[in-house]
Amino acid sequence: MTIYYKVIIKWQKYPMNDCIDKKYCLFSYSKRKFKAIEGLEMDSNTSIQEKIDYLKLKLKVRKIQIEKIK
Hints:
Helix content: 10-25%
Oligomer: single chain
Number of helices: 1
Structural class: alpha+beta
Strand order of the largest sheet: 3-2-1-4
Shape: elongated
Number of strands: 4
């Protein structure tokens, strides 16, 4: 099973708008029509292996490949 992910960056509001507020990953089953899987959100500073282990645990699947979408 192939799972795609995006890194989302949320910036702070006006007085500090050059600072990052939150940076996280969203996961999806499809590449073209990216619709995030509800309940699957992860910190973007984790390794690829940690992401795979997290997805295996949450989705209850044995074999997973992940791909980053820019």
